[in-house]
Specification:
alpha/beta, two-stranded antiparallel sheet
Length: 254
C-alpha cells in the first residue's frame, strides 16, 4: 500500500482485538544503544563477531568473551528507555491482553520501561545461564566468582543468556511469538530491517493469517513490499502519537 496516515493506523488499532509489536535494533538505537557491530570498538575492534558471540569462541576464550559482555553491560548502565519503549508499555497497561511485544533486542529496555510481558527472541544480556547442562552441584549455591563465574564443584561456566551465532532461538519463546503473530489483527514492525530470520518470518506469518502489517522505520526495509502501511520516522516520535491516542500532544489519555 505504501505510506499511510497515523490517523488510519490508529483506527486499525482501535478495531484490532490482538496487536503484535515486533521491535528491532532501531528502537534501542534511539536510546543510544550501540548496535552489535558498533559495540566492537577500541579493544574489541580487532575481533570478528565469530570470536565474541559463538559457543566455540566462549569455550576457547571464556574470559575474553565474558569481558566483552561485561563491557556491553556497562555501556547500557546509563541508557534509559525512550518514548517508543514507554508508549508501548503504557498501551499494554491500558489494554490488558491486547498487545504482545516481541523483541529482537537483548538490552532489556522494554522490561525497564514497564512492559508487563515481553517475548525476547534473542535473550537478555543482563541475565546468565549455565554453559552446560547443570548438575545438582550447580544449584547447590552461588557460583564461584570469576571471569566468568563457575560452579565450585564441577567447573561448569556461567554464560550470557543471549542467543549466539549458530544457536537456535528458545523454542518456547519462538512458539509463543509465532502463535501471537498468527492470531493478530495488526502487527507493528518497528525499528527492524526485516533481514534477520526467523524474526522476520513472524511478519509473513501475520500477513498470511490475514493480519494487517504496518512498518515504522525511518528507512526502507526488506518487508515493505508485504506491508499494508508504511510510517517513515523514528519510533520514539511515532509510537508516542500512535499509541497514546492524542496526536496533538503524544501524551497518555486517561
Amino acid at each position: 500500500m505504501g505510506a499511510v496516515t497515523e490517523a488510519l493506523v490508529r483506527r486499525w488499532l482501535d478495531q484490532a482485538q490482538h496487536v503484535v509489536a515486533l521491535t528491532g535494533a532501531g528502537v534501542s538505537a534511539e536510546s543510544g544503544v550501540p548496535t552489535f557491530r558498533d559495540a566492537q570498538t577500541g579493544l574489541w575492534a580487532r575481533f570478528s563477531p565469530e570470536e565474541l558471540a559463538t559457543e566455540s569462541a566462549f569455550r576457547a576464550h571464556p574470559q575474553r568473551v565474558w569481558d566483552w559482555y561485561v563491557a556491553r553491560r556497562e555501556a547500557l548502565s546509563g541508557v534509559r528507555p525512550n518514548e517508543g519503549h514507554l508508549a508501548l508499555a503504557r498501551y499494554a497497561r491500558r489494554h490488558p491482553g491486547k498487545l504482545t511485544l516481541v523483541t529482537q533486542n537483548v538490552d532489556g529496555l522494554h522490561q525497564r520501561a514497564g512492559q508487563p510481558f515481553t517475548l525476547a527472541l534473542h535473550g537478555d544480556i543482563q541475565s546468565e545461564r549455565w554453559l552446560d547442562e547443570p548438575r545438582g552441584c550447580c544449584a547447590g549455591g552461588p557460583p564461584m566468582p570469576g571471569r566468568p563465574p563457575r560452579c565450585a564443584v564441577c567447573g561448569n561456566l556461567r554464560r550470557p543468556a543471549v542467543v549466539w551465532f549458530g544457536e537456535t532461538l528458545p523454542a518456547d519463546i519462538l512458539s509463543a511469538a509465532q502463535e501471537a503473530s498468527a492470531a493478530c489483527d495488526l502487527m507493528l514492525v518497528v525499528g527492524t530491517s526485516g533481514a534477520v530470520y526467523p524474526a522476520a518470518g513472524l511478519v509473513h506469518t501475520a500477513r498470511r493469517a490475514g493480519g494487517r502489517v504496518v512498518i515504522v522505520n525511518p528507512q526502507a526495509t526488506e518487508l515493505d513490499d508485504i506491508a499494508d502501511g508504511l510510517l517513515r520516522g523514528g519510533s520514539a516520535q511515532i509510537l508516542g502519537r500512535l499509541l497514546d491516542g492524542d496526536p496533538a500532544t503524544g501524551r497518555e489519555n486517561c
